[in-house]
């Protein structure tokens, strides 16, 4: 069986302790320590997940992300694919005319697909955009509600911590005052015992002197 780890004990009550107000030099020490800790901590917390590599399976998107991160300009569009160049040689060979004809067929097919896409966009684009906006608004409201709930939970936790620390702080103050009173009583009793021992010793000496007489 594994040994049970001892639970952590925190003896600070930040909502109740006022040592920093009572002793200004402590605040300076605390600020120096905080600055040192913030400067020294360069590693992430073990619970922080590692950085996820984006678009690891898509080299094109990964290269585009790297380009944007490096603030490089967007490459110029290749307009040659949209042109209809004729064969450069005169007279042209059959292969050159066939390549030019294939390019023209590709351009015609491309324009036909563009017309179809524009027609589809004109017919269904508005409704699709409305649905997309509706989903975005719904997600936004959901996240805003979650954020408000988290804020309310945070305020409630801090309120409970403050009330608990105020209650425990008052108990600690009462116990501290009682401890001070008891220590003072013990000291008074010890002083009284010292005075009584001195008085007894004086009386014993006096008794011895009277016995000799």
Automatic annotation (TrEMBL):
Subcellular location: Nucleus
Pfam families named among the record's database cross-references: BCAS2
GO biological process, one term: mRNA processing
Coiled-coil annotated residue ranges, if any: 136-213
Alphabetized UniProt keyword annotations: Coiled coil, mRNA processing, mRNA splicing, Nucleus, Spliceosome
Gene Ontology cellular-component annotations: catalytic step 2 spliceosome; precatalytic spliceosome; Prp19 complex
Family per similarity comment: Belongs to the SPF27 family.
Name of protein: Breast carcinoma amplified sequence 2
């Amino acid at each position: 069986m594994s040994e049970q780890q001892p639970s952590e004990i925190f003896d600070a009550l930040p909502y109740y302790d006022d040592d920093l107000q009572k002793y200004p030099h402590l605040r300076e020490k605390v600020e120096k320590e905080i600055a040192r800790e913030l400067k020294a901590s360069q590693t992430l917390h073990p619970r922080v997940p590692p950085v996820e590599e984006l678009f690891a399976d898509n080299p094109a998107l990964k290269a585009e992300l790297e380009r944007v991160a490096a603030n490089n300009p967007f490459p110029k569009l290749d307009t040659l694919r949209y042109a209809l160049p004729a064969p450069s040689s005169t007279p042209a060979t059959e292969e050159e005319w066939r390549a030019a004809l294939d390019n023209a067929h590709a351009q015609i097919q491309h324009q036909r697909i563009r017309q179809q896409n524009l027609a589809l966009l004109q017919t269904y684009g508005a409704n699709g955009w409305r649905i997309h906006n509706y989903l975005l608004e719904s997600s936004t409201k959901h996240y805003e509600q979650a954020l408000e709930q988290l804020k309310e939970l945070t305020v409630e936790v801090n309120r409970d911590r403050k009330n608990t620390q105020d209650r425990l702080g008052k108990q600690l103050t009462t116990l501290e005052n009682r401890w001070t009173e008891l220590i003072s009583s013990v000291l008074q009793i010890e002083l009284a015992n010292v005075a009584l021992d001195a008085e007894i010793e004086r009386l014993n000496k006096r008794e011895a002197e009277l016995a000799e007489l």
